[in-house]
Amino acid sequence: MASEDVKTSESAVNTIVNLAEEAKLAREGVNAPSHAVLSICKSLVAGGVAGGVSRTAVAPLERLKILLQVQNPHNIKYNGTIQGLKYIWGTEGFRGLFKGNGTNCARIVPNSAVKFFSYEQASQGILWLYQQQTGKEDAELTPVLRLGAGACAGIIAMSATYPMDMVRGRITVQTDKSPYQYRGMFHALSTVLREEGPRALYKGWLPSVIGVIPYVGLNFAVYESLKDWLIKSKPFGLIEDSELSVTTRLACGAAAGTIGQTVAYPLDVIRRRMQMVGWNNAASVVAGDGKVKAPLEYTGMIDAFRQTVRHEGFGALYKGLVPNSVKVVPSIALAFVTYEVVKDILGVEIRISD
């Protein structure tokens, strides 16, 4: 796995270098359409790199969160963040901490690329409509408008990559003792498609879309609005010019991620549980005696909420919140900062704050 990560990193660096060289040529005399296409490609690459870096950095916590979300209440294996990580290390070793990360990156790289690019396009379109409506050419995006642009970006990115997210959840949950093993993302996709049908690839899509509206929307709205406020008000003498330091931007991203994930977390739990429906060999639904104590069968999102609260209490909607909170702070912060830094390296003229 380490070698695969190194190869992926080298490939990403080479892509960035090539795009930077092409950008230099573009500034020296390439026509406008070619320059526009190059700018779009660079923006997508920046978003993809941001997603890959941020998710790999917190992969062990991401896996533990999912295991906590879907574990059987009759066979508790993971009782908390530290105990859960130690249990994974003891039973599966170092590789167990990163199980499913390759599939996760295969999903999050295009998801992040589409999300950041969609936000830029949506925010530009919404700003133009707002300026036309108010008659003020110098009008700026409000926090509510940024929330709307972020929600649009989240829905587009989630829908485009949802099947990969679905199988990533199953690969993350399985262990070496699972009766049936998915060998990888494509094997999982083909197996689910063959055994459960095309609709199975979109199990849990509705709570995902509903959850992504406040989650991604708040991420972008809080991050951009907080940055804008810091630049304009210059509180506590933190800002000396119009540029924020990397540390300050990391803090803005951490605040944005914490608020967004807290609001949307129950929907993420329901999404994961719905994704496990139909997977009879999932390790999470098999109790210690080998018998299925609580089969995962939901008729829909509302039923999943109702059954979860009735059988396990309201607190079950926040299972895995602690490792997720620890994960979200560096993950979202790294994603935003990496995106802006890579765009600076590539020489992209437009940044999300603009």
Descriptive overview:
The chain has 354 residues and is mainly alpha-helical. 72% of the residues lie in helices and 0% in strands. It contains eleven helices and no strands. The protein has helices at residues 2-27, 32-57, 59-70, 81-97, 101-134, 143-173, 185-196, 205-233, 246-276, 301-312, 321-346. Helix 2 (32-57) crosses helix 5 and helix 9 (246-276) packs across helix 10 (301-312). The model is unreliable at 1-6 and 283-295 (pLDDT under 50).
Question: Briefly, what is this?
Answer:
It is built from eleven helices and no strands. The protein has 354 residues and is mainly α.
What topology does this entry show?
Elements: H1 2-27, H2 32-57, H3 59-70, H4 81-97, H5 101-134, H6 143-173, H7 185-196, H8 205-233, H9 246-276, H10 301-312, H11 321-346
Helix pairs in contact: 1-2, 2-5, 2-11, 3-4, 3-11, 5-6, 6-7, 6-8, 8-9, 9-10, 9-11
